[in-house]
């Protein structure tokens, strides 16, 4: 194993959070010191590892090592990052890194300033990674989350359509790596019965670097980099009614942090916020998004309520933290209908008389498998793909009160049988 991979492995053990991190013992410290001294390890990964050690509660061995480190940081750390352990603040962001390491929370103004520095191309990458890691490990406050969302919303591009209603299918941008990614194919299905749908993402991003709509569109010989203005035209075309916009076009400053996110290994606040930015909007906006850890169900709900750019939102805990529902298990959900927040609810295939299909996670699923499964689903070939997109579409229409489950199921199946949904897929996201 090369040195970079060794430190990544160590960081995955240590930097996972207060409840899941594994302590360092014995020979781990010798290995760590060697890796910190290695010229073959990325500086951002080194800084992220040190931030994790300094932020999380140490065991006795770690506490002794940290004290030795602080007595002479230059002996252990690259010169660029000794400021993590010394009383110097040679960059405005470093003071906020140290505050987070000490579990001090930032107010909204401070958080916005810190995130401005994270977005700034001139800020050293290791410093950005250190700040994002410390924030995640101390756990961002609701005020910090809200401030980040507000800043990113202001800094990103938003296009407005003349559509009366638009559904935003918003998954985590790092994709899926244990199941076929099928959310993309729900978009033309919903569009085929009159409900326009937008998706958004990026070509690839850590930590999963999993399958995503960009990759599926490219594999299908479509254009995932279609201009947002052209996507708006597709959305407004009743024969298409769906589209995808890429982060590189609507928020290039954030897209530029892809390499940083690879080097820092773990998932930062960027992943929480970017999926909520709604790059294309209509007169009425319905947002559907997902979560992995239970705490984020409430965090996302509060963020979206305060942001108020979504008229209604549905938060689902689907497969791998996506909105893609399991075809064999129930899933928790939260709904805000514009007036009331409905919590502690579950949805199951049996709610809509959909036969359950077993799903077995597989880390070796090829991207082509997702594309084939999705296209087969749109061509009304029974299987997990068709069940998956049908189930999600019915759930969305039901929870938002757009159709009764019975009417939704009838119209969706009719569209699949008659080839209407597949026609919408074929006409969407075309190259010029």
Task: Identify the notable features of this structure and list them briefly.
Pyrimidine Nucleoside Phosphorylase, Chain A, domain 2; alpha/beta; 21 helices; 2 domains; seven-stranded mixed β-sheet; elongated
Largest sheet: number of strands, sense, barrel closure: 7 strands, mixed
Please name the fourth-level CATH homologous superfamily of the largest domain. Nucleoside phosphorylase/phosphoribosyltransferase catalytic domain
Helix fraction, binned, reads 40-55%
Radius of gyration: 23 Å
Characterise this structure.
The chain has 21 helices and 9 strands. The chain is of the alpha/beta class and 432 residues long. The protein has 2 domains: 137 residues, no CATH class; 268 residues, Nucleoside phosphorylase/phosphoribosyltransferase catalytic domain (Pyrimidine Nucleoside Phosphorylase, Chain A, domain 2, 3-Layer(aba) Sandwich), CATH 3.40.1030.10. It has a 7-stranded mixed beta sheet with strand order 4-3-2-6-7-8-9, sandwiched between helices. A two-stranded parallel sheet has the order 1-5. Helix 10 links the parallel strand 2 and strand 3. The protein starts with a helix and ends in a 5-residue tail after the last helix.
Give a quick precis of the structure.
The protein is α/β, with parallel strands linked by helices and 432 residues long. The protein has helices at residues 3-14, 27-37, 43-55, 60-71, 73-76, 92-101, 108-119, 125-138, 142-155, 183-191, 213-219, 228-236, 247-250, 252-255, 258-264, 269-274, 295-307, 367-378, 384-399, 405-418, 420-427; strands at 159-160, 166-170, 197-201, 242-246, 280-281, 285-290, 312-316, 331-336, 341-347.
């Amino acid at each position: 194993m090369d040195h970079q991979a060794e430190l990544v492995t160590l960081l995955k053990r240590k930097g996972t959070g207060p409840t899941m991190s594994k302590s360092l013992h014995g020979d781990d410290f010798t290995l760590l010191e060697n890796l910190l001294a290695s010229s073959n390890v990325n500086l951002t990964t080194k800084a992220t590892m040190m931030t994790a050690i300094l932020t999380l509660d140490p065991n006795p061995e770690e506490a002794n090592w940290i004290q030795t480190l602080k007595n002479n940081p230059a002996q252990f750390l690259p010169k660029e990052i000794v400021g993590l352990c010394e009383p110097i603040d040679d960059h405005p962001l470093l003071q906020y890194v140290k505050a987070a390491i000490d579990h001090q929370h930032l107010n909204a103004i401070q958080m916005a300033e810190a995130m401005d520095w994270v977005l700034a191309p001139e800020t050293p990458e290791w410093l950005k990674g250190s700040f994002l890691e410390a924030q995640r490990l101390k756990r961002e406050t609701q005020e910090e989350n809200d401030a980040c969302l507000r800043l990113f919303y202001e800094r990103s591009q938003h296009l407005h359509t003349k559509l009366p209603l638009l559904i935003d299918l918003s998954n985590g941008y790092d994709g899926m790596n244990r199941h076929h990614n099928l959310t993309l194919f729900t978009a033309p299905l919903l569009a085929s019965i009159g409900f326009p749908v937008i998706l958004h993402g990026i070509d690839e991003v850590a930590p999963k670097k999993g399958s995503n709509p960009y990759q599926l569109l490219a594999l299908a010989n479509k254009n995932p980099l279609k201009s947002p203005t052209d996507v708006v035209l597709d959305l407004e075309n009743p024969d298409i009614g769906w589209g995808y916009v890429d982060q590189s076009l609507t928020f290039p400053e954030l897209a530029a942090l892809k390499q940083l996110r690879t080097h820092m290994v773990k998932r930062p606040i960027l992943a929480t916020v970017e999926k909520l930015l709604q790059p294309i909007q209509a007169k009425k906006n319905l947002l559907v998004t997902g979560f992995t850890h239970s705490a984020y169900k409430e965090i996302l709900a509060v963020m979206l309520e305060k942001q108020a750019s979504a008229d209604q939102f549905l938060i689902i805990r689907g497969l791998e933290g996506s909105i893609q529902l399991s075809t064999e298990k129930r899933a928790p959900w939260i709904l805000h209908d514009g007036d009331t927040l409905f919590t502690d609810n579950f949805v199951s295939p049996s709610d809509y008389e959909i036969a359950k299909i077993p799903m077995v996670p597989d880390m070796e699923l090829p991207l082509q498998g997702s594309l084939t499964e999705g296209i087969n689903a749109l061509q009304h070939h029974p299987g997990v793909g068709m069940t998956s997109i049908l189930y999600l579409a019915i759930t969305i229409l039901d929870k938002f009160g757009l159709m009764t489950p019975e009417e939704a199921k009838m119209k969706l199946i009719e569209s699949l049988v008659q080839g209407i949904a597949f026609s919408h897929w074929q006409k969407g996201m075309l190259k010029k």
